[in-house]
UniProtKB/TrEMBL annotation:
GO terms for molecular function: glycosyltransferase activity. GO terms for biological process: GPI anchor biosynthetic process. InterPro entries: PGAP4. The keyword Zinc does not apply. One of its GO terms (cellular component) is Golgi membrane. The keyword Transmembrane applies. Keywords: Membrane, Transmembrane, Transmembrane helix. The chain crosses the membrane at residues 20-42, 254-275, 281-301. This is Post-GPI attachment to proteins GalNAc transferase 4.
Amino acid sequence: MLHQAWQLCGRWCRWSSPFIHLFTLTVVTFGVLAPLICHRLLHSYFYLRRWHLNPMSQEFLEQNQQEGQAALHYFEKLQMQNASEASGSDTFQPLLLVTIITVQRQNDFHYVLQVASRFHYLLQKCGARCQSHRLLLCNVESDPSSHQDVKLLSSFFPLISRDKTGEKADPRANQFEKEKQDYVFCLEQSLLAYNPEYILVVEDDAVPEEEIFAVLQHLLLARFSKPYLRDALYFKLYHPERLQRYFNPEPMRILEWLGLGMFMGPVLSWVYSWATGRSSLSWPIVLFFALYSMALSELVGRHYMLELRRLAPTLYNIVPVTECCTPAMLFSAPSAHRALGYLRGLHCRQGFAKDIALYSLLHTKGENAYVVEPNLVRHVGMYSSLRLNNNPKLL
C-alpha cells in the first residue's frame, strides 16, 4: 500500500506532471503576480486598502479640485470670447436632450462646471453627428440665485430653476422626498421645454466619458429598435464599480461568469497543451483553466474586464438593471411620461430614495429597465448633497 502511494506521488510530483505545472501556476498567479500587479487597483480583491485608501482619496480630491478650477477657466475663456449659446426660444425638437440637475455644493470643486464643460467640449467635438442634441440646466437650489456656478453657466446654456421661495413647505418632505420632487420637476420641465425624443438626466457630479455620444448614437439608432428595449422604463448609464462584481445575486452576472469560464477553459488548455507538447486536450485540465480564469477575473475585478468593451460602441453591454444609483438616466419621451406618473404617487424616505423607488416600479408596474456597461459617466462627487461627510473616501 505504501509502495503504491509512493509510486503515485512520484508520478504526480515530477516536474513534467500537469499537477505540478498547474499547482505552480496557481501559486505564482494568486500568491505573487496578481497581488503585486493589482494592489493599487481600487476595485480588486487584491487592493491593499490599509496602505492606499487614504492617500488615494486625498489625491483624488486634489485632482478633482484642479479639474474644477480648469472647468471654471474653460467657461471664463469662453465668456471672454463672447461664445454665448443660451437660447430661451429654441423651438427645435432634439433627438437627445441632456438635462443636468444641480444644487449648490462644495464651491472649490465646481462639480456642475466640470460636467457642463465636458458635455460642451464633447458636443463640439462630435460636430454634425450631434446637431440634434441639446443641453439644459435645471437648478433646484432652494434659493436659485445663490448658486454661483449656475449664474456663470446661464450665459451659455438654457436654464430652468425651481424657485421654492413662494411654495408652502410640505411637512412630509424629507431630504429624500425633496430630491425626488426635484427630479420630477426637472424631468417634467425638460419634456415641456423641448419635447425631445430622449432625455438624459444627469446629476451634477457625473462627468461624461469620452465616447458617450458615439455609444448613445449607436444605442438610439440601432440597438433601441428592438421592442423589448424600446419600451423600457429607463436605461442607467452608471452603476457603482464596487457593485459590478461577478459574485453577486444577479443571474445575468453568474451566466456571464460561467460563459467566461466555458470560453477561457478550452482556450487556455489548448495553449497549455501546445506549450507542453501534449497532443490532445484533457477535460480535467479544461475544467481547471475554466475555474482558474473565473477566479482570476473575479479577484482582479470585473470592472477592469468591462473596460475592454470601450474598444467599440457595438461591444457595450445592455443587461437588466439593479437598484443603485441615478447619476445618469436615459428616458424615451413615452417612458419619461410614465415615470413621472409613477413617481408622483410614491413618497421617498430614508431607505427608499428615488433610485430604489424607480427600481420598485419594475415589479409593481410590470416595467423593464436596463443598465449599459461599462459606465458612460464618472461619478466624481465625493461630497454628497444628501449625506454630510467631512472626510470622504473613495470606498
